[in-house]
UniProtKB/TrEMBL annotation:
<dbReference type="GO" id="GO:0061630">
    <property type="term" value="F:ubiquitin protein ligase activity"/>
</dbReference>
<dbReference type="InterPro" id="IPR044066">
    <property type="entry name" value="TRIAD_supradom"/>
</dbReference>
<dbReference type="GO" id="GO:0005737">
    <property type="term" value="C:cytoplasm"/>
</dbReference>
<feature type="compositionally biased region" description="Acidic residues">
    <location>
        <begin position="1"/>
        <end position="11"/>
    </location>
</feature>
<dbReference type="InterPro" id="IPR045840">
    <property type="entry name" value="Ariadne"/>
</dbReference>
<dbReference type="InterPro" id="IPR012292">
    <property type="entry name" value="Globin/Proto"/>
</dbReference>
<dbReference type="InterPro" id="IPR001032">
    <property type="entry name" value="Leghaemoglobin-like"/>
</dbReference>
<dbReference type="Pfam" id="PF21235">
    <property type="entry name" value="UBA_ARI1"/>
</dbReference>
<protein>
    <recommendedName>
        <fullName>RBR-type E3 ubiquitin transferase</fullName>
        <ecNumber>2.3.2.31</ecNumber>
    </recommendedName>
</protein>
<dbReference type="InterPro" id="IPR048962">
    <property type="entry name" value="ARIH1-like_UBL"/>
</dbReference>
<dbReference type="GO" id="GO:0020037">
    <property type="term" value="F:heme binding"/>
</dbReference>
<dbReference type="InterPro" id="IPR001841">
    <property type="entry name" value="Znf_RING"/>
</dbReference>
<dbReference type="InterPro" id="IPR002867">
    <property type="entry name" value="IBR_dom"/>
</dbReference>
<dbReference type="Pfam" id="PF01485">
    <property type="entry name" value="IBR"/>
</dbReference>
<comment type="subunit">
    <text>Homodimer.</text>
</comment>
<keyword id="KW-0808">Transferase</keyword>
<comment type="similarity">
    <text>Belongs to the plant globin family.</text>
</comment>
Amino acid sequence: MDDCASSDEDYYSPSDRDSLDGLENEDSDLQVATSKGSTAKVITRESLLAAQREDLRRVMDMLSLREHHARTLLIHYRWDAERLLAIFVEKGKADLFASAGVSVVESEDTGTSVSSSSTSVCDICIEELPGDKMTKMDCGHAFCNDCWTEHFVVKINEGQSRRIRCMAHKCNAICDEAVVRNLVGKRHPDLAEKFDRFLLESYIEDNRMVKWCPSIPHCGNAIRIEDDEFCEVECSCGLQFCFSCLSKAHSPCSCMMWELWTKKCRDESETVNWITVHTKPCPKCHKPVEKNGGCNLVSCICGQAFCWLCGGATGRDHTWSRIAGHSCGRYKEDREKKTERAKRDLYRYMHYHNRYKAHTDSFKLESKLKETVLEKVSISEERESRLRDFSWVTNGLCRLFRSRRVLSYSYPFAFYMFGEELFKDEMTNEEREMKQHLFEDQQQQLEANVEKLSKFLEEPFDQYPDDKVMEIRMQVINLSVITDNLCNKMYECIENDLLGSLQRNTHNIAPYKSKGIEKASELAVCWNSKSSTTTDKCLLFDCGTSGKRDRPFSFGSSDDSGCPSPQKRPKQESFGVSKLIQFLDMNPTTITNSASRATTMLFSNAGINMLDGNFVSKICLNQNYGSKLMHHQSLELSWLKRNGSWMDLVWKTPKSIRSVKRDGEFKVRAFTEEQEALVVKSWNSMKKNAGELGLKFFLRIFEIAPSAKKLFTFLRDSDIPLEQNPKLKPHAMTVFVMTCESAIQLRKTGKVIVRESSLKDLGATHFKYGVVDEHFEVTKFALLETIKEAVPEMWSPEVKNAWGEAYDQLAAAIKSEMNPP
């Protein structure tokens, strides 16, 4: 429904005009006038680059900067140009630039080759190269083009393309995007386009004042606002939504209130509450049983008798004072209090929910009334009558829709405002009661006038004489003004008298606007050919054969390593393990290994970083490429522990360059009696919660490596939250139980046995989905963390080693069967 505008007049007299200026319709078909000077803008595919350049040009002109440095500053300050300029005035250019990674002194030869007449040594690969093979950044650091290129490729694939730092040790300068684009484009054109797209998307992903329209299917638009983010806007696709939480427009509820209310309605928690209040579980079959008589001896349909007072199982014989040798003990007052409290909470919830639903249903029915009313208007206009203007009807409908929606959402607001869930300690009982009376008085007035307005609009005025129509007309216009004023006063009451100083930062609400929810106007596209770069060629949206825009890639707020949209897109070659080894083979990497410690110097954002490698398993140190490189598996695990994102890069490696290392024929290693006792004891403690632990096990895997979800067909294209996916928990429990039970049987059987499957089948399945060593290591890490959390009192280095050894043997057995069919 589109929103409308209304007059600021407090009353109407017959001498006033027939149509109140600006009282527009809630529905687009009833639109009387369009809003002018909208502060919300629709950003389409065509206008995205123009919107970004508008902010870039402003900072470039104010601070006399190149585009690269202006973009770096804006990304650092989340595209808030006002804040950026305020910091510049307050702290000066040096502090502003230093915090964002911009070199204060800019070199004129930035991004150019070093003098070709001389040779230089690259500090990364330690090779002496001619100057035209070297490139220098703003900060003055120069490295060879090959090292720069591989550095850029790694960062783009890691999702750090918006802020790629210089390779020099402790240098925080951001690399020039033109240099990145130039060097990467020579070898990886597709990756260069991806880099440009990430820079373009940064304007939306990193910008607090710009968000994607949440329409489903996605319309392809983004919305930019100029003022307070706590507002409601309407996209050009017709969707009205809350800009803050991206749910449907819900004022006067705050975002937190609306989230809690929708969850309460969705979960049907009060139905469960009713069952808790009025029934008790049978001690045998555990089904809820309702008492329908006065006797406290209750019988379940399964045949079990039990005491209603305490829930304990009993026999069937009983007297006035005793039930089959059973005694409940003393009466417990707290149980009675809890029951009464649950009943009171249930009745309170049903009071607000019933009224919320009633007004929501009325809104839907009145929306259907539109066609009937317009038909009446059409008939009335064709009659010979002195009444020619029927705009009061469409204006009245508009006000009815708007007021009905405000009234509907006022009940969830009241439920939380005057309950104890959010503001228990913020108000005394007397203050709460006084505020509740104040609010309910205004709510009651609004409700009465909305019902009157609805009644008059339902009148068959097309069949009435002119005098009767004039009377209805005056009533509709008066009620339209009254309901608008009452809505406005209700919002003022909420903002000033109710919320006031009560957690206003948490419970901000979108302000009431007489003209209705603001329609975002399309951002004007003003192309500046002088500032055009190769970024102009970047495609943020893909167009299918239907001509409709697909939803853009969805990326996180801190980086661009999110999951792509469900639409099919051309596959892009990821940076694989083999290329990673080639890249790191050119960089100094030192390994020292002792019985208790491994210290590794790794290449990362800031050059060479020291990394404590206590967690690096011994098997990872088996391979050592001279003094430069240790086994890539160890490197990835180290990065996983430090950075949390490297594992995801490896998971996206194409199958063509994946591999699983096998050390000849698999043989079971000795599993000691002490190790067996430790795993048996801990498993006996865990198995009663195998379902929950299995789910935690898999959720931990997906937390470490989100891309692992792509290995499961029932998760790959599912929008259902992982915890609620009906297929994940059974599968997770099966895998968890299989893994644990294989450990228990390891010593007795002398071989690896898997439950409900075979090693051959598991090997074939793992081979089919391209599972590699890194996947097994992540799974092991998640398994040990899950067991540690499940049995903290039993956890010790010995328990960890026992479970680790058991899993290693299971993994080795599966790998031995990973052969092509």
